[in-house]
Specification:
The complex is a heterodimer of chains A (about 110) and B (about 120). Chain A has about 110 residues and is mainly β. In chain A, a hairpin with a 6-residue loop joins strand 3 and strand 4. The radius of gyration of chain A is 13 Å and the shape is globular. With about 120 residues, chain B is an all-beta fold. Helices cover about 0% and strands about 50% of the residues of chain B. The chains are: A mainly beta (about 110), B mainly beta (about 120). At the A-B interface, strand 3, strand 4, strand 7 and strand 8 of A face strand 5 of B.
Chain lengths: ~110, ~120
């Protein structure tokens, strides 16, 4: 998988569910990780290896990866979830780390 | 508490060289891969490379687009990793982050980043 595609922006109403897709060739054969980045801050890992939530990440964050799309789902979205989100994988065949272009999440 | 602190950024002229440092604390530095990323102003995240732990051979991997100009090294007794940047270009202007861990598993700990501006 040499390229990952994300929508530039996603909007969600407060308290509703946001879904951020990340598409790539055969992405379901890779482990996909998701990062949250707020302005002026370093990225934070929110989902690792498709579905794993690191310690300290709220349960409303979840991930999936199947049939050509990895998806970050944020349930009951809160104002503090407004951020840029990036998907990322390691392509061992090319020894390259690949990032999606990032999605700006707006909570209305 | 795991901490990573980058230093050494600043304003550099095109064609010059610079070394950025990453000092780790709160963990056994020698046991971990140190990864490097960058982010140009207003742009997305870009992987620079990583250096494996000594136990894994201490070898390095680089983004293909940067290979040859950037070099990673580490001084485990000092808990410092280095990113040497040569033949700097204007497009190397970015915040440079170091992080603990292999990108293959998701990188859980990041430094705060250091800004490098390449300009004449």
């Amino acid at each position: 998988s040499s390229e990952l595609t994300q929508p530039l922006s996603v909007s969600v109403a407060l308290g509703q569910t946001a879904r951020i897709p990340c598409t790539g060739n055969n992405i379901e054969t890779y482990s996909v990780h998701w990062y949250q980045q707020k302005p002026g801050q370093a990225p934070v890992l929110v989902i690792s290896r498709d579905t794993n939530r690191p310690s300290g990440i709220p349960e409303r964050f979840s991930g999936s990866n199947s049939r050509g799309t990895a998806t970050l789902t944020i349930g009951r979205a809160q104002g503090e979830d407004e951020a840029d989100y990036y998907c990322q994988l390691w392509d061992s065949s090319s020894a390259e780390v690949v990032f999606g272009g990032g999605t700006k999440l707006t909570v209305l | 508490e795991v901490q990573l602190v980058e230093s050494g950024g600043g304003l550099v002229q095109p064609g010059r060289s610079l070394r950025i440092s990453c000092t780790g604390s709160g963990f056994t530095f020698t046991d971990y891969v140190i990864s490097w990323f960058r982010q140009a102003p207003g742009k997305g995240l870009e992987w620079v490379g990583f250096i494996r732990s000594k136990a894994l051979g201490g070898t390095t991997e680089y983004a293909a687009s940067l290979k040859g100009r950037f070099t990673l090294s580490r001084d485990d007794p000092k808990s410092i990793a280095y990113l040497q940047l040569n033949s700097l270009k204007i497009e190397d202007t970015a915040v440079y982050y170091c992080a603990r861990g292999l990108p293959a598993g998701g990188v859980g700990y990041w430094g705060q980043g250091t800004l490098l501006t390449v300009s004449s």
